[in-house]
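Team,

Forwarding the record for the chain on the shared tracking sheet. I've put the sequence and predicted structure together so nobody has to dig through attachments.
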Amino acid sequence: MADVNSKYKDMENIKSLNFDAVIVGGGGSGMRCSLQLAEGGMKVAVITKVFPTRSHTVAAQGGIGASLGNMAHDNWHFHFYDTVKGSDWLGDQDAIEYMCREAPKVVYELEHYGMPFDRNEDGTIYQRPFGGHTSNYGEKAVQRACAAADRTGHALLHTLYQKNLECGTQFFVEWIALDLITDADGNINGVIAIDQETGEIGVFQAPVTVLATGGAGRIFKASTNAYINTGDGLGMAVRAGIPLQDMEFWQFHPTGVAGAGVLLTEGCRGEGAILRNKDGEAFMERYAPTVKDLAPRDLVSRSMDQEIKEGRGCGPNADYIEMDMTHLGTETIMKRLPSVFEIGKNFANVDITKEKIPVIPTIHYQMGGIPTNIHGQVTVPDFEKGQDEEGNFAHGRVINGLYAIGECACVSVHGANRLGTNSLLDLVVFGRAAGKHIVDEFRNTDHTYKPIAIDAVDFTMDRLNKLQNSTEGYYAQDVADEIRETMQYHAGVFRTQKLMDEGVEKILALEEKVNNIHLEDKSQVFNTARIEALEVANLYEVAKATMISASKRHECRGAHTVLDYERPLDDDYAPNGRNDHEWMKHTLWYADGNTIIYKPVRKVPLTTDYCKPKPRVY
């Protein structure tokens, strides 16, 4: 084992690899960042849990948001307003402005890379309407989602992968990152990872580490997320002493296939699909009179849940809603929604050209994550500078050597609720921004190789050996299932303070089981049981952060709807239960003592005027 010494130095299967930058995650944000670094002449490694084109970005169907104006008048100011409003005013307006201004640029860049967008007759990129996207500051729906049929994420991944191969990016496929390498000053010097194929341990040393590990939707029982989405990057950050931001906010996508959880893109409603209750009523007209079925996801999910609660659900148990696409016609469906047609057949036994398909709100996306600035640098509160007059930690400091991008990061452009198509946009804009910043810093700073600490691998090896030497304990999937069932019941679409408080108790009570997982299969080659056991630790940290953060936020905002704090829309103090006087602030959860602190929302945009809060209606 070169250059690394520890109490495990006799283990010859630990190897050390040196790079200019290591990116953990081969999805949209990771590959957009690695492309920027490779084009900048850096030696870059991408550690990826699955083959890059199988990353969860592949599941993004509907489009990438950008105010190109190809189908109707649009500009980035409208996109900015919609994103701030969609976030329920918890998004940081400087970051939101940056993302919306950069959007057309990055989409045209993807087009020039060869991404096969659908085309209008005049050759411009096809755009479809999407939930919460409007023209003229909420006046009417606008076509802003740049789409490649209903496989936009798939097209994006293949485009970025091909460009990375062209530029010489080095991929470590089916390697699992385990822990960050931290020096005595708190700087990050790389990661420790395990090769699934051989069980070999690798120490990846680099002056720059980028976490691009995606979300953690598998903390819930019913989820549109792939099984790989276990919050690995978040777990790594937490074990390095870094807080997680705004983890109480989880988006339920309105249209997961009932009973299966498989995603049906919002592009269905963008193309004209209608949600109907058991009476065949297009009920969204009652909840969002202006945009109807194209309201933001949190509002549509709550409306569907309300219909079911009030006895208007469909099916023998009245426990789902039906989405109607029969009026769109076979030609439109096969041209614009071919994957949805296949999903209908495979997971619901429904021909969507002739029948309505059963759907139900399903966990889809985490708005929170590892706190960063618009360059992707991980930032944490500077405790030495203290709190402001409202008790928030307004001053931050950068963790040297560490960046986070994509769904695992919290910039925060999504605030309390993400707009559809802003996820792919987030990946590309901030993957590119982090890459540009890293290249600029790399050219202007000393990046001489520095040997890592003698005991750098000890913590990780202790974790692995505890599993390897276990003789009794709990089965990993049983513990993971307990986490998921607890989260599903206690952190759903509608929450109560009592439910959340009980959820905190139940999650904390699982710690003993999480710490005593038994690994029955001790083999080295493709031991998926070992990987699943390691994933439980990550799931648990994310679940704790979510449950505790949620229980502490005493208001209704975006995806966090607590029945105890609901108020009328015309309430003077807290319209719809959103209490800007006390709760317009970001939550930060630290694993040490399960501590919660707060930092202010950044209200000042880069160049435009501040978008003032107002009641959120559509």
